[in-house]
Design brief:
By secondary structure, the chain is an all-alpha fold. It contains 5 helices and no strands. The protein has one domain. Helix content is 75%, strand content 0%.
Amino acid sequence: MSSGSRDPNNSPVPQRQVSAIAANLAEWAAQPVKAINRRAVLWTGISMAFVVFASRHDPQQASFARNVAMIFISVHGLLYIMLQRTLTWLRDRGMVEAGLALRAYTAPRRITNLDLAIAWAAFAAIISLTRVLLARLYGS
């Protein structure tokens, strides 16, 4: 089955939608790794700063920040699995562009959602460690 054709075992999808998905996947796969990584680091850093800033007046700041981090860990982990499975499913049904996108997503130098989940886990650990160190330092 070539890219853009229908699988007769599944519900029919209009040809133009299949073509649009294939074009988007091809465009996404062609993006430079450095640009993708830069955006991922930038938006994750902004999100982390926002969490710290938004919780600065909360008496349970560390708990709030850890809870938000746990949500992001879960979301990024689920996105990683869903994206891998969806791209594999599309590739197995003959969409060449999905295979290209999967190869680009799993490239060793590319930051994936799994990497971002790990970054949020490190953020949660740093927040917890900071809280413990400050408690020992100030005796509270």
